[in-house]
Amino acid sequence: MTDHGAHGHVKARPGTASAFESDMDAGMARMMDDMHGPGYTGQPDTDFLAMMIPHHQGAVEMARLVLIHGRDPMVRQLAQDIIASQTVEMVAMKGRMAVLKKGPDPQPGGYPALGAVRGGA
Fold this sequence. Notes:
There is one protein chain. This protein has 121 residues and is mainly α. It has a domain at 19-101. Helix content is 60%, strand content 3%. The chain is built from three helices and two strands. A two-stranded antiparallel sheet has the order 1-2. Strand 1 (3-4) and strand 2 (10-11) form a beta hairpin. The longest helix has 29 residues, at 73-101. It is flat. It starts with a strand and ends in a 20-residue tail after the last helix.
């Protein structure tokens, strides 16, 4: 029997999981706990950032695991790209969170801006 976890991922049957599967399941559970742990504050901007930061940390952890266990060069390259881009986005989100926690931002176009962190055109 296959168990679909809270985030829609498939959990391995107990006793049959590989190290990769076990580590992925543990990482996904940690991500979900970290996303929902703080609860909502009533401030959509900071609530969004508070949930997205652990979401990105989860993506980085998943990518790290595929670098350990995966073999396909294109998937490994994608994992490296995810680690790089999501890390930059987490830094920007944490910086923005710090600004917003001080109250209304008198200079919303100032640092840390979130635009163009993906490096695309």
